[in-house]
Design brief:
Blueprint lengths: L10 H10 L6 E2 H4 L5 E12 L2 E6 L1 E2 L13 E3 L2 E3 L1 E5 L2 E6 L8 E6 L1 H25 L3 E6 L4 E5 L5 H16 L4 E6 L1 H5 L13 E6 L3 E4 L14 E9 L2 E8 L1 H21 L6 H33 L7 E4 L5 H11 L7 E7 L3 E7 L5 H12 L1 E5 L3 E6 L3 H10 L4
Parallel strand pairs: 1-4, 17-18
Antiparallel strand pairs: 2-3, 2-9, 3-8, 5-6, 5-9, 7-8, 10-11, 11-16, 12-13, 13-14, 15-16, 18-19, 19-21, 20-21
Length: about 400
């Protein structure tokens, strides 16, 4: 979108003044104190377009996003900051309305969201640092979602190894050590061992956690590990020759525990078992269900056998409704009755409200040729072979039965 001038200077003139040193680059307050929530600043430049304005300030506590962490939002002089982004070293604050260059503003970030993200991001550093220290694997992919973090490591890890990582990560939280941040020149950083996905040659911001991690990162972090609260690894899976880990930390970990605890309590009540014994109770229930399924299968087969033996030969078609039979037993019934039917036999299960599933079989009629005619007659969808069709129908059972029993075409 084409930028237009707002109030005094063009963006080009502003950037020239930055290069000449007449105007300073934005002071990033979150670098020196990530816990600043409210600040005062001066508007250095305003670029207006039809959808709003991009404001450049002399100082800001708004993080423009980076290092896997989303940008901050909040307010400037009570108007919402919709987006914050960085381009060529300049931080822009996207707002609905322009503000005059030189005017004073009060900014306030959405602290609840910022702190939650800092907890999660600092927790990710601890986990990634622990994995790198203990097993030598690198973090090669990182995504901070709305309620969880995914990390891709370039090596495979066992469940036992991840349990060890989780325990050690929480031990780092319990030690409540300080998280240090500092900026090193390109020359200084080349002599330092640290984690980074890129080979950085210029000034680098380092985030260091004692005994755990040293990593290049531009994002704000908590001051001490104790502020994270807790870390929980939720799941892991093999991914592109390595391991993808899903984790939560801080407030997200607490909310995850709340949800899981409520579910565990609900299941324990349904099973009439203690909360810590629901896995054993569920396993017993599944074994019982499998035994009942086996018994039901045996009874269904016996029922099908007796039913087929008691039915006389039919000169024409048959249509039966058998809701009590599993699909395998309905198929057996069709196979048994098609030998005692000169036309075809249809066995249905379902209701007029929800529709029906049908299995149709014949040893006399080419059902592949008859498929379209049958589906049209019962408002159905399905297909199969010359001897068997399967599908669904939405007409009422009386209408389906009437069509099938009167269908004499071969």
């Amino acid at each position: 979108m084409e930028e237009t001038l707002c109030f005094r200077r063009s963006l080009r003139e502003f950037l020239m003044e930055v290069e000449r040193g007449r105007v300073g680059m934005t002071d990033r307050l979150y670098y020196t104190d990530s816990h600043i929530q409210t600040f005062e600043a001066e508007v250095q430049q305003c670029i207006e377009d039809g959808d709003g304005a991009d404001l450049i300030l002399d100082r800001t506590a708004f993080f423009p996003g980076g290092g896997g962490q989303a940008c901050d939002t909040g307010v400037l002089n009570e108007q919402p900051v919709r987006q914050v982004y960085e381009k060529n070293g300049i931080i822009y604050h996207r707002c609905p309305k322009p503000l005059p260059v030189g005017s004073k503003v009060v900014g306030r970030i959405d602290w609840e969201t910022r702190f939650r993200r800092m907890q999660a991001h600092s927790g990710e550093h601890i986990v990634s640092g622990t994995v790198h220290r203990d097993y030598g694997w690198d973090n090669v992919g990182f995504h901070m979602g709305s309620d969880a973090i995914t990390i891709d490591f370039d090596g495979e890890m066992t469940c036992e190894q991840l349990e060890s990582v989780e325990r050690k990560a929480n031990e780092a939280i319990w030690r409540d050590t300080e998280i240090h941040t500092y900026i090193l020149s390109g020359k200084e950083v080349r002599s330092l061992e640290y984690r980074s996905k890129l080979e950085l040659m210029e000034d680098v911001r380092i985030v260091e956690i004692d005994e755990v991690d040293r990593c290049a990162c531009c994002a704000p972090h908590v001051h001490r590990t104790g502020e994270i609260g807790s870390i929980k690894i939720l799941s892991s899976m093999r991914h592109r020759g390595g391991t993808r880990v899903e984790m939560v930390a801080g407030q997200d970990a607490f909310l995850e525990f709340q949800k899981e605890y409520k579910n565990a309590v609900a299941v324990s009540r349904m099973l009439s078992s203690k909360r810590l014994e629901i896995a054993e109770a569920t396993a017993a229930l599944l074994r019982q269900a499998e035994e009942l399924k086996l018994q039901n299968g045996n009874l269904s087969r016996k029922y099908v056998q007796v039913l087929a033996e008691t039915m006389d030969f039919c000169d024409g078609n048959r249509c039966l409704l058998e809701n009590g039979l599993p699909e395998a037993a309905r198929r057996e019934l069709v196979n048994a009755l098609k030998e005692k039917t000169s036309g075809y036999v249809a066995v249905l299960a379902g209701s007029d409200t929800d529709g029906y599933h049908y299995i149709i079989g014949s040893s006399q009629v080419d059902l592949k040729k008859a498929r379209n005619r049958i589906n049209e007659g019962i408002a159905g969808k399905g297909g199969g072979s010359t001897e068997m069709l399967q599908g669904s129908a939405i007409k009422h059972f009386d209408e389906i039965s009437e069509f099938i029993l009167s269908d004499n075409e071969r």
